Amino acid sequence: MSKIIVRGGRPLTGTVRVHGAKNSVLPILAAALLAEEGSCVIHDVPALDDVTNILQVLAALGVRAQQHDTRVSLHADRLASYEAPYELVRKMRASFLVMGPLLARLGKVKISLPGGCAIGTRPIDQHLKGFEAMGAEIGFGQGSIEARVNGRLHGARIYLDVASVGATENIMMAAATAEGTTLIENAAKEPEIVDLANFLNAMGAKVRGAGTGVIRIEGVERLKGVVHTVIPDRVEAGTYMIAAAVTGGDVYVEGAIRDHLGPVVAKLEEMGASVECDENGIRVSAPRQLRAVDVKTLPYPGFPTDMQAQMMALLLRSEGTSIVTETVFENRYMHVEELAKMGADIKVDGRTAIISGSSKLVGAQVCATDLRAGAALICAGLAADGVTEVTGVHHIDRGYMDIVGKLAALGADVYRAPSPEEVLAEAAEHAVVEHVTVEHVTVRRPVAVIEVDERPLADVAMLRVHPTLA
Ligand SMILES: CC(=O)N[C@H]1[C@@H](OP(=O)(O)OP(=O)(O)OC[C@H]2O[C@@H](n3ccc(=O)[nH]c3=O)[C@H](O)[C@@H]2O)O[C@H](CO)[C@@H](O)[C@@H]1O
Ligand SMILES: C=C(OP(=O)(O)O)C(=O)O
């Protein structure tokens, strides 16, 4: 397992650029399944494990994709399968977003129940309710769902019991080529919904009202491929804004959009940070001591649940007591126990957490239990005395592209200690063999000692590497 090692105490300064939004790019890549002709070219696609995962799901369905840096081209004119493989879908919640497009395109879909961050039960009843209202028949069996429709899906009026982001997106995609008009009431209003609607409209769909509580989709016959640039990631931007504030630093977050970050900006200002916004980004600078504030997570445009953990790390550095209320997910306080290992004084009672500010944070060995918990632990580590070692880095890799490189460029004392497996893979790829004996192969870049058990170097992936590597 690799680790992120942070030595706290350095104020961050400089400029950091945010990547395309994870939560936009995932539904947009799924929507590319709807393009019956032409190719979709998506720009600013971040190199994230979640992106790799959804591209693998699409490949299994027959989509041909090519990736060059942050540009991805997808050809979905011929689909090969209606089954989204279990081992891929279980890794990530957003892979469930292929259900709507597959139903619309092929009239049938088989998909397993989705996995993802352990932050609550995360049912999918609202997605299914929408598809049923549009004429799909849904069956369950052994952890998977099979849905079919005779002919085309038809338009329907669908009221969501909760303003679910994923259900709004899945239904919007299914409705894009349905017969007739679909109304989604109590729709989610997140900027990522608007980005998806813009993408679908460019493909030829007729989606109106995205970003409001009522979305109207007039179904069209066919959609075609288009070129689209994904919006910047507001959660990544917010994370660097918090990282700046928690270290008493001064950071310009290039690409951050003020309108997408209203509650984060408001709370930072209430705490006493200085926030300057222009059309290209947001600059945050903060004094060492900030004021305590209360925070309640809500669907957009409320305070984002995806920023709650990072905000909590910042509140630990404020003067006074803060109350955080998590209303979106019922189990999103897993980071509290880890922060406590660093000296945090936080009491959780149901959905409420009481945070004593001015906690003296000290470095510790902690584990990222989910994506944003990982970001919060890094933020806390930047402010702590001594060294913090964060494990569970695979969660962080789902949503932050090169977080270590970006923080280091801002002056943080941070690095990633690779796992023995990663060192081995790197060694196998780049190694120049210096010396081989029966017991040891010594290689350069990086220097590694590999146990050989008399096997040839070509079998290197089978061998064990000692973790104490230079
Ligand atoms: C890939 C992506 O975009 N992920 C985001 C998306 O997740 P996701 O789309 O999964 O989140 P939802 O908006 O669907 O979930 C919000 C709430 O609705 C509940 N619910 C959801 C669907 C359903 O059918 N029934 C139901 O009860 C959930 O349990 C949760 O309590 O929005 C969340 C809320 O802003 C963010 O934290 C995630 O980062
Ligand atoms: C919870 C998150 O993602 P997902 O819905 O993909 O699990 C997140 O981005 O914080």
UniProtKB/TrEMBL annotation:
Binding-site residues for UDP-N-acetyl-alpha-D-glucosamine, renumbered to this chain: 93, 122-126, 306, 328
Binding site for phosphoenolpyruvate: 22-23
Modified residues annotated as 2-(S-cysteinyl)pyruvic acid O-phosphothioketal in this record: 117
Subcellular location: Cytoplasm
Ranges where the Enolpyruvate transferase domain occurs: 6-407
Ranges in a coiled coil: none
Keyword tags: Cell cycle, Cell division, Cell shape, Cell wall biogenesis/degradation, Cytoplasm, Peptidoglycan synthesis, Pyruvate, Transferase
Example of a GO cellular component annotation carried by this entry: cytoplasm
Function: Cell wall formation. Adds enolpyruvyl to UDP-N-acetylglucosamine.
Protein's UniProt name: UDP-N-acetylglucosamine 1-carboxyvinyltransferase
Lineage per the UniProt record: Bacteria, Bacillati, Bacillota, Bacilli, Bacillales
